[in-house]
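Example record for the data management plan.
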Amino acid sequence: MMNVLIIGTGKLGYEVYRRVAVMPECHVTLLDHHRHDHDVSLATQLIGDATSVEDLKRVLVGIDVVFSTVGITQAETFATALVQAMDEVGVKRLLWTTQFQINADQISEAMYDLANREFGFSREVETNYVVGQKAGAAVIKASDLAYTLLECHFFKYTDEADKLIVESAENAVSGGPLSIFSLATLIADMVLQNQDYPQRELMISARPKASI
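Corresponding structural encoding:
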């Protein structure tokens, strides 16, 4: 039996839960700061503070794989607490979602334009978000965990199926925004077959759809 901890049960965390919890070889524990209305009856749901080392240590006992999708804000705070708690409990495997621009020296004008045009993000919002994600990722990179940073393009909150591009984070991103539906399917496979994803950092985006 593989024991999986999902931290954060927003849209992405819930979609990953739905895919992993139905697998007979897995048991899923969910950690969030409050209960949600959606059905999580196939998991153990725990309420706690993901910035609290003590709360995290309590839920990490017996866990094999951690998938964290918290840290839209305060990413460094979340990462620092999680690394400490995992070290103290002895859990090593971590999948951590972050942003695809964290390794860039600066945000390109094209990405500022895309963020504003498609998602309504101002230049300041996008800049602050990427800076925060860089700080959180730096904490993970400095750890001795068996981590994989999932450096995701902008999310599309749709159920459309995208063909995803999964590539080395050393390169510039090849694709564009990706659907939560498709990303959750990939992450579920990473959780279930985590030995097949030894890379420390992966860039994830969607292949542009061919125009008709």
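Summary line stored alongside the record: The radius of gyration is 17 Å.
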